Structures are given as structure tokens and as C-alpha cells.
Amino acid sequence: MRAITLPSFGDPSVLTLSEVIEPPVGPSDVRIDVVGAGINGADISQRRGNYPPPSGAPVWPGLEVSGVVSAIGDDVSEWRIGDEVCALLPGGGYAEHVVVDQGLVLPVPHGVSLLEAAALPEVAATVWSNVYMSAELLPTEAFLVHGGSSGIGAMAIQLAHALGSRVFATAGSAEKVAFAESLGAVGINYREQDFVEVVNYEMGGTGVDVILDMVGGDYVARDIRALGVGGRIMVIANQSGDTSSFNVGSLMIKRGRIWATTLRARPLAERTAIIASVRESVWPLIEQGLVKPTVDSVFTPAEAADAHRRMESSAHMGKILLQFA
What we know:
The protein is α/β, with parallel strands linked by helices. The protein has helices at residues 41-47, 121-134, 151-162, 174-182, 195-202, 219-226, 248-253, 268-281, 283-287, 304-313; strands at 2-5, 16-19, 29-39, 64-72, 84-88, 97-101, 105-107, 142-145, 166-171, 186-189, 208-213, 227-235, 257-260, 295-299, 319-323. The chain is built from 10 helices and 15 strands. Strands 3, 4, 5, 6, 7, 14 and 15 form a 7-stranded mixed beta sheet that branches. It has a 6-stranded parallel beta sheet with strand order 10-9-8-11-12-13, sandwiched between helices. The protein has a two-stranded antiparallel sheet with strand order 1-2.
């Protein structure tokens, strides 16, 4: 089968469309003929040599796909050949076929196209596991997400808004602020405004209850200043590449928590539990039209390097997809 591989690490030009051996289908596995694959920040890090796949995963990138079930293992009970599905992966999504444990597979939500469904698993699992399963954001609480125009940001805004929270989101241009606001957030242009000042002014000085931070660096210290008493900061990436430094006393005064997480390398049991919770709690919101996949652009496998360049340019709003079929 064809897959987009990494013969070496480096800039987007290293992405190579190659012939690889198709993974075998185990007893609890599902094989999916891929229609769409989502592009994520983790793929960029892997391409640069900074985020190796976990043991046992394919060595080429790709953390989420949509497509059609083409084979099932002997122990698979829920899925059937021909089912339209999407799935969360530990790797290998940039390919014509993927093999994944049945517990990481989701049905395509009603009202969502098969291609669009590729934009859902990674962002839904990341946001739901961090903001709701870990930080336990309540409808009465306020929420701030950085990178509000990203795939994760767009999902976070929509979920928190749909579930009743007041939402703030940072973004880097007037167009991106407008995008975040169209999804239900109070938009903050971080190039022109101090998000700490905006949040504290809008909240009357009480701060927000949960912050989803994928920037890291000096944002963590600023997050603490924007945090309310008992607040929770979920750090899911360090896109700034900088070291975070903050005064522990300022966090103690607010009785706050900082929790850094990743999703990809968690044990299978944890990832399947997250997917089950996403199916139970997020999928109904999508099927009701309260939360929607946000697709910025679609590229062919031969254009994978251009897709990565678009992501690295930060010009995108929503998810970037590869279309395999």
C-alpha cells in the first residue's frame, strides 16, 4: 500500500509517498480503507524528529483517519465490513489502509461527510479528555483556550460553548478572532491585546476556571495570572519551544493546578476509555449540529508537503486534511 513516509527528519520536503507493507489484522483489530487523514501538530513534531511514535505503531505519521471498514479480527463484535468509521491512531494514518484496535474506532456522526469525519477523532479526544475528563469544566465556569483558530481550538470553543460555559480564545489576527467568535468565544487578538487583562476585565477580576494551553513557554506564568481560585491549567503542547518559568507562590495563592498531558502514548485501555466517553458525550452534540468539524483545506497525498507547509504557516483556520480516496 502507499503511505507518506519519513526517510529522514527535516522540513516538509522529506515527506515521501512510498510503498510499504500493510500491517496485519489482529484478533481485536479493524482494517480501514482510508478516505481522509487529519494533520496534527504532533505530525509536524514527528517529521522534525522530536516526537517518535510509541512502540508497535507504524513509523509514518498520522493520528486520525476516516474511511470504510474492509476487514475485522475474529474478536471484533461491533464493526462490520462496509461500515463508515473514523478512528484515533497511535500513528500510521498517512496511508491507504490502517489497522487499529476496535476500541479506538467511532462511527461517522450523522450529518458529517466521510471525509469531514477525519477532522474529528484527535481533536475531540484531546479536548474532551483534558477539559472535561481531567479538568472537569462545569457549565457555570469560564474557559480560555489558546490557539482558538486551530483544529483543537475550534473544537474546544464549540464544546465549551455548547455545554454552557463562557469561552475566551486567543488568536493571531482579526480574521482568526472573527472565526473564534463565530464559534462562540470572546476573541482576543494576542498580537494587540494582553489576554490576562482582557480575561480579568471581562470576568470582573475573578479569572477563568480552566485554561487549555498548547503554547507553553511564558504563557504558563501568564495563565496563572488569568486563573481564578481553584482553577486548572491543562498544558497539551509547548509550541513556543521555550522553558516555562513561574512563581509557585502565585499558583498556591489561587489553589490552582497545572496538569501536562499527552494522548498518543497512553495505554490502550486509557485511550479506549476516552473514545468511549467521546462517543457518549461529544457525538450527540455533533449529531445535533451544536458542534461541527471545521475543515480549512484538503490536500492529496502527493501534496502532503504543501499541507505541512500550510500548517506551519499558521494561516489555517480549522483542520487540514489529506484525501486518499
